[in-house]
């Protein structure tokens, strides 16, 4: 399952604002997630704890999100 939250643009507008948070749940019982936030951070959360994602994976997510028809 993918959960997406679109954030309200700040007033006055800020250059480079990326108003999107996303959580993707995996597994039969949705027992581990990948979380992305608007500060360009990403985390993989499992029963072992949270670990930050690699910069390459964050870049791919941000690039695909900006080009996504729902974000435009």
Description:
With 72 residues, the protein is α+β, with helices and mostly antiparallel strands. It has one domain. Helix content is 17%, strand content 36%. It is built from 1 helix and 5 strands; from the N terminus they run βββββα. It has one helix at 55-66, and strands at 2-6, 20-26, 32-36, 42-46, 49-52. Strands 1-2-3-4-5 form a 5-stranded antiparallel beta sheet, covered by helices on one side. The model has no long low-confidence stretch (mean pLDDT 88).
Produce the secondary structure layout.
Layout: E1 2-6, E2 20-26, E3 32-36, E4 42-46, E5 49-52, H1 55-66
Antiparallel strand pairs: 1-2, 2-3, 3-4, 4-5
Brief digest:
This protein is α+β, with helices and mostly antiparallel strands.
Listing every helix as H and every strand as E from the N terminus to the C terminus, the arrangement reads EEEEEH
As an assembly, this protein is single chain
Spatial sequence of strands, sheet with the most strands: 1-2-3-4-5
Largest sheet: 5 strands, antiparallel
């Amino acid at each position: 399952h993918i959960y997406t939250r679109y954030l309200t643009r700040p007033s006055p507008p800020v250059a480079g604002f990326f108003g999107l948070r996303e959580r993707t749940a995996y597994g039969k019982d949705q027992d581990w997630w990948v979380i992305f936030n608007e500060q360009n951070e990403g985390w993989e959360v499992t029963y072992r704890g949270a670990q930050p994602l690699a910069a390459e994976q964050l870049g791919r997510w941000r690039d695909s999100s900006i080009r996504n028809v729902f974000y435009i």
